[in-house]
Amino acid sequence: MKMIQLSVIPQSQMPLENNEKTLENKEKFIRMEIDLGLFEAYPTSRLLGFVSKLITLLPSLQDHGPAEGSTDNLVARMHRGIWLGEVIEHVAQELQSLAGMPCRFGMTRTGANPGVYFIVYSFANVHAGVYAGLIAFELVKALADDGTFDIRTAIQKLVGFRFHDEDNTFKRAVVNVAYTSEEWWQAN
């Protein structure tokens, strides 16, 4: 399994066969292109213990509702068997939510070549969104390879992105107020 590309794209580059209402207030998205390689032959139902290990690490994935055209939630679909590209999409969204930056839009589409998937998801903070995609890819790859993953450290780093962004917003607000006050003082 390998990541081919990860980038930030504007809404104008989104494939819009989906519900356009979802996209009304979104300006940019994270887009990943991955190649599942040999894992294309192994949906989640064929990866022994994969679903239970993933749910142990991220129990909140049980709250991910049905996909378009389905009545089953994500966990039920993983037990039946879905491709790892879709799992990566959901994990990237959930990691951001766990770090206090909920992101509710995502979609996964197959590419022209077998095993290649395009994953698109929203983000609240661009640095956290990119990092969440990298983490999601590494986590799913590790579990598919029957390995382990340190989820706590990954989420702590994502939280750091959130607070860094909030600090910068606060600092910009303080500077703007100070600048406005200085202008007012000099004008009077």
Automatic annotation (TrEMBL):
InterPro entries: Cyanophycin_syn_N (IPR044019). Pfam families: Cyanophycin_syn (PF18921). It comes from the Bacteria. Residues 32-144 form the Cyanophycin synthase-like N-terminal domain. This is Cyanophycin synthase-like N-terminal domain-containing protein. It comes from Sphingobacterium pedocola.
